[in-house]
Structure formats: C-alpha cells, structure tokens
What we know:
By secondary structure, chain A is mostly helical. Chain A has a domain at about 15-115 and about 195-284: Ferritin (Up-down Bundle), CATH 1.20.1260. Chain A has helices at about 10-65, 70-80, 85-125, 135-140, 150-160, 165-225, 235-270, 280-284.
Amino acid sequence: MKAGPISPTHQYPLDTMLDALGLFKRNINQLFGISVDIMNTGRSLQLLSSSMQILAINGVAQAAKVGGGKGRPILALVEILNQTPREIKPEVEAIEQVCAELARLTAHSSNIVWRYYQLIAGVLAAMPQGGQSSCLADRHQSSHLRFTTLEDITLLMSDPSFQLGEPLERDNRSSIAAICQANLTELHARLSEALRCLNDTGRALHGLKMIGLTARYMAFCIASEAAALDEGGMNFKTLATEIGHVVDELDARTHAMKSSIDDGQSLVELLLKGNSDAKQNTLQ
Amino acid sequence: MQSKTLFNENGHQWIVIGRDPHKDAHVIDTNEYVIISRGQAMLLDPGGIQIFPQVLAELAKYVRVQDIRVIFASHQDPDISSSLAMWLDLNPDIKTYCSWLWTGFISHFSTGTAIELNAIPDEGMRIKVGDLGVEVEAVPAHYCHSSGNFSLYDPLAGILFSGDIGSALVPSHEAGLIVTDFDQHIQYMKGFHLRWMPSTTALRSWTQRIRALKPRMICPQHGSVFQGDMVTKLLDWLDSLEVGQWKGSTPPRDTAKAA
C-alpha cells in the first residue's frame, strides 16, 4: 500500500500510526506477564529445593544406619545435598528482585508510551490540512510511519509539510515533537534497563542450573557408592533415583524460565528497534 | 475538532473548542474553553484524555503551549480533566485549580508527573489568568451537579463558564454553537438537568448568584452557548426546574436516550 501524505489526508497515517503504536504499547504491557512467569517459576524452585532437603535428611538418616564406616562417603554426599535450599534461596531472591524491577520498568515504560501516544497524535492532528503537498508520501511507504523510533519523528520534522502554516502553529508543532523525542529517548532508556534486568535473570538462572548439575552429580555418586554396599544399597539407589527426579523437575522449570526470559529479550530487542510483535499479541 | 472565538477585545480572548466530527460516538461531546489574556492562557475544563490530541491540535492555532499558565477544573469528572496529566507533561509549570473537595481525587489522573492542585475553597476565589494581573472569579456551584463544583466568571469579558449547568446533549457536531431558538433547545437540556442535577435548592441558589453577576454570555461544558436574551431565558428555565426527583421509576425517555 502506498503511503498517504501527512497532508492533506492526515487521517490515514494517523490511524496507521495509532494502530502500530497501540500494538507497541500492548507489547510493552506483555512484559508484565513475562516477568510474572519468571517470578512464579523462581518461587516454585524454592519448593523444589525443600523436596531436595527432605531427600537429603532421609539420606543422612539411612547413612547413619550403615555400619563399619561404609556409610561415611554417602553421609558426606547427602550433607552436600542438604545445602541445596540454602544455595537456591539467594538465587531465587535475586530473581524476585530483578523481576520486581522489571515490572516497575514495564509500568514506567507503559506510562511513557501512553503519554507519547497522545502527544504524537496531537502533532499529527496539528499538521496542516487541505491542498498542501508533502514529500513524505513520495519518499516512504506507510509502514514506515509508525513513529516508534526517533528516526520517524526526525523524518516528520524534516518534512516540508511540517513547516507549513502560521509561525505559532509551527512553533507548537516543533515543541510538542521535541517532547515526543524526549519521551521516546526516555522509553528507550527504560527498555534498555528492562533488557539488562532480563540478562541478569538469565545469569541467576545459570546459577540455578549449576546447582541442579551438582545435585545430579551427587545422585550419581550416591548410586555408585550404593552399588558397593551389601546391606541397604537398594535404599540409596532409590534415593539417588528420587534425587534424579527432583533434578529433572528443576531442569524442566529452569527450561521454562529460560523460555520466558528468551521471549522477554526478543520482545524488548524488537521494541528497542521500534518494531512490535503482532504474534505475541495474539498469544498472550 | 472545531473552534470559534467568542470574545476578542484588547488582547483578551475567549475561544471555544468542540464539536469534533471525528470523535468516537460513545464519548460525550464536550466544549473546552480557553481564555487568552496578553498572550497567556487559562484552560477551562480541558477535557478527557480521549480527545486530548484533537484539543491540543486546535489550541495550537491560538496560543503557544508554553504560554498555558492555568487550568481550571469545574469538578472532578473524567470528561473534565482526565487529560490533566498530559497538559502538565507538556508544561509542568501550569497551575491547576479545582474544588478542595476533589484535589486528592483528581491527582489520581497522574501518569508519572505528580499533579499538584490548588484548592478552591467552598466560597470561591479569584484566579489570575496568567502572570499579568487579569483575574477571573471561581463562583460556587456546589451540587450543580458535583458536591464540589465551580463556575468561572470573567468580569472583563462578561462571560460565565457554567460547567454542566445549561449543558445540552445536542444531536450532532453540526448543531449550532450559539443558541438561537431557546424553546427548541430545551429538548436537549431537559433530560440532562433532570438527571444530572441533584438539588433544586442548589440550582436556584446558583441562578441567584449568577443573576447578580449579569453575565453577557453563559458557556456550558456540553451543548451550545447562551448570549443576549438567551442568558435570562436560561436562568428563568433553570429556576422552573424541579431536579433530583428520581423515585425509582423509569428515567424520562430523553435522559435514557442520552445515557
């Protein structure tokens, strides 16, 4: 579709812009959902770590029953496992903090884009109408007129039609457009912070994965030690299997969290480029 | 959005903005008024957020946005001032005024920038249009319709901004901005006043105050402007009304249609 000129048929790009910005704004709000997903998964990991602790206590009790010092290596292994909740807790707390910051940034970004939406609509409504030609239509497709980037506003301000009309109107258009630029700059700063938060969450997730790997290795070692035991060996094999199940669950949840973080990162990177994601909109 | 200069003498202007042909049908039509005095402006009931871009675009033809110095809100309704945060975003130095009863409520329209409202006491007060001395008067209009409500009188222009009093739900944006046939206009005002005005006593007390001011023009927030003989006709008609009489029956047909 060819671009409509800003003047005289200003309603056309205004509608296109409002649709594009509406989706842009909804995408920003979707970051809320993503941060809540990450936080909920993080909290569920704390429950999982409690399961791990119960298994470790069980292991300690059983290892104490093994006579002749044979249970000592297993005792050492399950005591390491017993530390898991203490290791997971600060990681989850870090994730909660980052997610709370992410939610705050999302709210702030949502407010900025809401104000920006009104102001840029005001600028476009204030463009001269009726019989004035605009070069903008000749140079660009309508899809470029989304006004989600500073370049789009610069393009608008450098268009000859922007300089038409009375000096008072021109001054007002320029000053409002300047506020729009400031709003977009601020929005980009907030979105960049949101991206940093998501990256931080990714790092905390890496820590959780390492805890899972350690627990799995402990389970493997317990199973190996159990093989050397005549009496009660089966109990430790069962314990090792149970630990493996808990670690499997930990893996599944960290995988889900990674998926949410990846979605968030893709979305913010898209928004920072001034694009929006219609697919995200339908999925949420 | 359309606009019209109602008064223009010696650098003192009244402009009305309204009758938006592109407005969504579900949004009630509103009139936004601007007093410009020596280049500085006061916005009266700047309107809802839905129409902010159009009001801004129209206002940009008359005054620099940096020269908007004061916003007056007659009461707390969203069609009056839900755009307040946007105006303050444009110009954080704007002073805003509303009834003391609503300052804490209207502040909820903030979207980041804190909205600090100047409280108008119940008895009213004088407010400067800008920095240069021209004053207008906030006239009590409590319970007409809001419990903390003010009209605004400009003695220099002889114009009274009446808020919701005298408002009408005119059928389209093509309706005349100035009332020329009062009897014909009643049909658009009657339902509005019978339902939205809660107190006959308060309404009659208001008309007494306004008769004493002898305004040349009365400008409501919805509908059409009254001038000349129409001012007296409006005040007489308001005195004849018995409002706030709903007793659980079906609302009058014209109000139901309006709602």
